[in-house]
Design goal:
Distance between the termini: 47 Å
Structural class: mainly alpha
Strand content: under 5%
Number of helices: 6
Number of strands: 0
Largest sheet: none
Oligomer: single chain
């Protein structure tokens, strides 16, 4: 059953992103920003963790989970370290993903020639 919920929830998140671009005429960057902020807001209201328990990878793979990770890390560290924890918590939780994106983008730029 988890596979079905992962498919449905992940598909709905992708559908919302596609509707933002097609109907809302947003650029992909703007649609991505809206989805990241939506994930952050949902986590701020403690609604994203139940979604993860329901859908598993259907909720953790889409870009909305990045907003969830930012907010979740900031709130967890803010409880223990105060205001400085907000800043360190954001980087503590998301550093692996950001570092991977930078390294793999650099490698892709070295290995492939741009068209044009």
């Amino acid at each position: 059953m988890i596979y079905l919920w992962a498919f449905v929830v992940g598909g709905l998140i992708c559908l919302i992103g596609q509707l933002l671009m097609d109907v809302g005429r947003l650029t992909p960057a703007h649609a991505m920003t809206v989805l990241v902020v939506a994930g952050a807001v949902l986590d701020g209201f403690n609604l994203y963790d139940p979604l993860i328990r329901l859908a598993g990878a259907g909720a953790t793979v889409p870009i909305t989970s990045f907003g969830h990770a930012l907010t979740h890390g900031a709130l967890m560290e803010a409880q223990t370290h105060g205001l400085i924890g907000v800043i360190t918590g954001i980087f503590e939780v998301t550093s692996a993903g950001i570092s991977s994106a930078i390294v793999f983008s650099f490698l892709a730029a070295l290995l492939f020639k741009p068209k044009g």
